[in-house]
Amino acid sequence: MSFNLVHIFTTMSPLSKGIFAILLLMAVLSIGVTVERWIAFRRSANESRLFAQKAAALIDEWKIDEVEELSTKFKNSALARLFFATIQRYIRAFEGLEGALSPVELARNESERMKEQLAAELRRGMSMVATVGSISPFVGLLGTVVGIIAAFQGIGAAGSGGIAAVSAGIAEALVETAFGLMVAIPAVVMYNYLTGRVAGIELALGRSVGELLDEMETHQSPNTKRAREAA
Fold it and tell me: Which residue segment(s) compose the domain that 142 sits in?
């Protein structure tokens, strides 16, 4: 008997075909999320690199208001969004010096909240990939069990047995398990890849905003346009 996937699929029961369709949908979803996240990470990295190059000189001259304005031009950059939130809170703290916390401490707290928000956005859809990687083998096994049950029911209805009578049905059923593994293995690899990318991005964000907060500690006052005009 030749191995013909088209023939095997056409001879499956409707329930087995439904399980096969579910596995196919899971594969498409995991690939789609991975591609979408890869594009988002790449776009963010490119814009963050350009933002960092332009912002470095402004931070050296402590033109913090211009860094804030610059960050609004890089909507897809996680670094720019983090800097914008941190600097905005730092500058706003000088407009009304009240409370026990210093502007730098308020900016640090805001940066932590923003990092949590960005981390959640970076992981968007990754739970779907993890779910596919963990349950697709079991979905495939379910398809195999259903296929074997259907094969034995066919034997009972025909009134004949033997390995020749049941081998074709078992082979068709085992295709479901094989397909489930084919979906699960790439999904686990893709999830681990995305997790590694997110961890790297979070590390870079933490280091960059930490350097910004160190600069804020050094200056302890915003060199903004408003301050220069008031002087």
Answer: 5-230
